[in-house]
Amino acid sequence: MRDRALFDLAIDSKLRGCDLVKLKIGTLVTGREIRARAMVTQQKTGRPVQFEITSDARTSVLAWLERRGGSVEDFVFPSRADPNDHLSTRQYARLVDEWVTAIGLRKEEYGTHSLRRTKASLIYKATGNLRAVQILLGHTKIENTVRYLGVDVEDALELAEHTEV
Question: What InterPro entries does UniProt report for this protein, alphabetically (predicted)?
């Protein structure tokens, strides 16, 4: 249950691993429900970033939190070594390695950042909207988003070819 909730939130939130593992229950819940949107301040940039939590992710997170228990001040993903602390980024990386290996992929080619990049890349491919992806990732410069997504001249030309004026 924990791993499913962690995976779903990683994809939906587009957060770096260091921010994902530090999520507090109160960030995700309102009353007895999981929010459709949440906001965190990124450790790396110090800037707030909003993210959506899809229906499937809300279901898996709710199931995990019902099993996990805890208060709004507790971490969503506690450390097994110290229940008052959060899951470490290293342990999160080990879990991702296990998931990748379990589905037959090479762990050398995928990691925690692959999960951050997944939805952002799909949004860009579907819309071509770099600015929207920049906002969702919390990047300060569009150049960072371009580099992050690996957008190249070929991508730009393909978008141009499909745009009629």
Answer: DNA_brk_join_enz, Integrase-like_cat_sf, Integrase_catalytic
Nearest-angstrom CA–CA distance, 78 and 86: 4
Which two tokens mark 84? Answer: 């008052």
Could you give the CA distance from residue 161 to residue 9 in angstroms, rounded to a whole number? 35
Residues 143-147: what's their mean pLDDT? 85
Q: For 147-158, how does the pLDDT look when each residue is reduced to its tens digit (9 = 90+)?
A: 888 877 677 677
Decide: 87 and 74 in contact? Cβ < 8 Å.
Answer: no
Q: Would you tell me which CATH number, out of the four given (1.10.443.10, 2.120.10.30, 3.90.1640.10, 3.50.50.60), belongs to the domain 2-102?
A: 1.10.443.10
Residue 127 and residue 109: Cα distance in Å, rounded?
26
Model pTM? 0.84
Which segments of the chain are extended strands (E)?
29-30, 33-34, 37-41, 48-52
**Quick check: helix, strand or coil at residue 55?**
helix
